[in-house]
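Reopening this one. Same input as before:
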Amino acid sequence: MSMTMKRIFLIGIALFLSLSYVAAQNVASERAKVKEQMRVEQAALDSVYFEQAQKAIEARQFVLEADRVMFKYGTTAYVNPNTNFVAMEGDKATVQVAFNIPVGGPNGLGGITLDGNVTNFKQKVGKRGTLYISFHVTGTGISADIDISLPQGSSTAQLSIRPTFNSNELQLSGHVLPLSHSNVFKGSAL
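Same output, byte for byte:
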């Protein structure tokens, strides 16, 4: 190869590498912009869901559909939100837990369903905007204390169920929805 050909070849490689670098920078910049836009859109959507959940709780017309359960000693299980929920409609509430086991429980779904009256309903807002709800559900044969915490800007809440007849506290995590938007399947109540 002649000297001129080598120079042209080297200039061509340098030009190719610089264009590749610029293109990679553009792709990385574009990717960062898309990621930031998705984050902003998700935050706006979460804020709308939080407002919707807050209004439903204030009206006492809500359902917390749980998708995760944590048992007394920290064991976690993912469950079906259609059969694991706490629903409140005015002064009535339903608390249902149903685990994915082959043996049917008292509710026919592998768990327990408590229908009862709500007493001691309390609602407060924490320092950082977290909404705290607590109430007691008294049903036939069993009763339970319920505590819900809904962080500001989110529809994902933490729920604690403390039965009054034993110490088998359950922690659930799920989404708070208005009663009209929920699609839960209720088993046989005690």
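So the earlier flakiness isn't reproducible anymore. For the record, Residues 1 and 25 are 34 Å apart (CA to CA).
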